[in-house]
Amino acid sequence: MGSAVGMVEVRGLPPALAVADVMCKAASVTLVKMEKVSGAYVTIVVRGDISAVKIAVEAGIEAAKKILPQKEGDKIFLSSHYIPRPSENLMVVLPIDYID
Q1: No. of H helices and E strands in the chain?
Q2: Most buried among 23, 38, 41, 66, using CB within 10 Å?
Q3: 31 φ, ψ to 5°?
Q4: How far is CA 99 from CA 3, 4, 14, 48, 96, in A?
């Protein structure tokens, strides 16, 4: 089975921790990092088999959408993406080795 990289971006560290937890519990993936992008934006990056990463990203999206924002109109879930079979060049910049 091929490898994949998945990302979910949320607003706030507590929601990011909750989403990362759900993603790791939903499928057999490795948490690569939680990157603070700007302000309160945090991107959670996971790696694993293609199907596992897809399941983890979908679970992360659902978890983020269930978190209630502190202020009306704020969004917790911002964006998501997953990359099946990423280029070796991309894999070099991610800190955890993952072998097919």
Answers
A1: 3, 4
A2: 23
A3: -75, 115
A4: 8, 11, 31, 9, 10
99's tokens: 């072998």
Q: 27 with 55: CB under 8 angstroms?
A: yes
What are the structural domains, with CATH classification, of the chain?
3-40+49-83 (3.30.70.1710)
What pLDDT is recorded for position 100?
44
DSSP classification of residue 68: P
Matching residue, tokens 């959670």: 44
- The answer to pTM > 0.85 is yes
Q: For the chain, what is the radius of gyration of the CA atoms? A: 13
Q: What residue has token string 């937890």? A: 21
